[in-house]
């Protein structure tokens, strides 16, 4: 019976291990067959398990004494084309709860030094001394500066940022954005403000008010002289507070530090690239 057991398992003979685990002289033949089937099932190894040398050694030796697991060289490998086209198992993502946002706070350090904050709620207020995230040392930040909100839109979750009427505003690094009247953005360390002009004559400051800019297609008054359309303007403010007004005299201008290629030159600004950003007019407005 011992010889039959060794031939069925394909393992070397270890009397002590086999006697303790499987062999009993009083075991009936039907019980022995059941034990054979159970042991054969445990010897069915997967390629993914054998791909790790340490893991294959543990599986081969676990519970079978001197048993030796077949190596990959002894098994049929799948064709290279099939292995290359195999799709990887996707990572599991929680689907029964809202997603968790991750906010990295850089301060003055590098990306590796960032402080990670997980946004586990639907609303997070950022401020100097009031809110979920506070920065008491940031004197340019308002008490309640901005809010990050999680909203459900079209069966999906979308994160929104809302500026809470802060004094100095909120700025984002973007690749493209539509310019509206009064829109402010940063280029290097300069702050630029885009102002639309009136279509029926300039106001006292040469630009349209916010209310007028919302109704540029309204019926105009009859005058003896046709109105001259006014070009939009850029108000450029340096870090020191100096302001320069630049009229957009064409539908495509470049802003940067290179005087040979830029229509609007930001001098003495080490953070402005030679050709930093482009402002252009398209069918739907200014970008």
Q: Unreliable stretches, pLDDT < 50, 5 or more residues?
A: 39-69, 201-213
Placed side by side, the strands forming the largest sheet appear as 4-3-5-6
- Global shape: elongated
Strand count, sense and barrel status of the largest sheet are: 4 strands, mixed
| Helix proportion range | 10-25%
Q: Please state the structural category.
A: alpha+beta
Structure annotation, total helices: 7
The succession of helices and strands, N to C, reads HHHHHHEEEEEEEEHEEEEEE
Mean pLDDT: 75
The number of strands is: 14
What is the percentage of strand-forming residues?
15-25%
- Kindly provide the radius of gyration, computed on alpha-carbon positions and rounded to a whole number of angstroms: 36 Å
Distance between the termini: 87 Å
Task: Give descriptors for this structure.
287 residues; alpha+beta; 14 strands
Walk me through what this model shows.
The protein has 287 residues and is an alpha+beta fold. It has helices at residues 2-9, 15-21, 29-42, 47-50, 53-61, 80-84, 210-213, and strands at residues 101-105, 115-119, 123-127, 133-134, 146-153, 156-163, 184-187, 190-195, 233-237, 243-247, 252-256, 264-265, 277-282, 285-286. Helix content is 18%, strand content 24%. The strands form four sheets. Strands 4-3-5-6 form a four-stranded mixed β-sheet, with no helix packed on it. Strands 7-8-9-10 form a four-stranded antiparallel β-sheet, with no helix packed on it. Strands 12-11-13-14 form a four-stranded mixed β-sheet, with no helix packed on it. Strand 13 and strand 14 form a beta hairpin. The longest helix is centred in the first third of the chain and has 14 residues, at 29-42. 9% of the residues are buried.
């Amino acid at each position: 019976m011992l010889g039959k057991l060794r031939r069925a398992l394909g393992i070397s003979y270890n009397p002590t291990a086999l006697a303790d685990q499987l062999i009993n002289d009083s075991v009936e033949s039907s019980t022995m067959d059941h034990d054979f089937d159970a042991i054969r099932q445990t010897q069915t190894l997967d390629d993914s398990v054998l791909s790790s040398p340490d893991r294959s050694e543990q599986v081969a030796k676990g519970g079978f004494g001197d048993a030796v697991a077949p190596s990959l060289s002894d098994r049929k490998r799948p064709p290279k084309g099939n292995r290359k086209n195999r799709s990887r198992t996707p990572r599991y993502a929680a689907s029964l709860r809202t997603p968790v946002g991750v906010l990295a706070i850089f301060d003055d350090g590098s990306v590796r030094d960032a402080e990670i904050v997980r946004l586990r709620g639907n609303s997070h207020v950022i401020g100097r001394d009031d809110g979920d995230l506070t920065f008491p040392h940031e004197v340019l930040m308002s008490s309640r500066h901005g809010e990050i909100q999680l909203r459900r839109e079209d069966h999906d979750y979308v994160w929104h940022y809302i500026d809470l009427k802060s004094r100095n505003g909120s700025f984002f690094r973007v690749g493209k954005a539509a310019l509206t009247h009064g829109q402010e953005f940063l280029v290097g360390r300069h702050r630029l403000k885009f102002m639309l002009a009136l279509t029926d004559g300039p106001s006292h400051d040469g630009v349209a008010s916010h209310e007028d800019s919302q109704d540029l297609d309204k019926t105009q008054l009859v005058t003896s002289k046709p109105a001259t359309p006014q070009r939009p303007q850029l108000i450029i403010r340096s870090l020191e507070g100096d302001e320069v007004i630049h009229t957009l005299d064409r539908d495509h201008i470049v802003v940067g530090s290179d005087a040979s290629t830029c229509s609007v030159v930001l001098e003495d600004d080490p953070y402005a690239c030679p050709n930093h950003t482009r402002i252009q007019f398209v069918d739907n407005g200014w970008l």
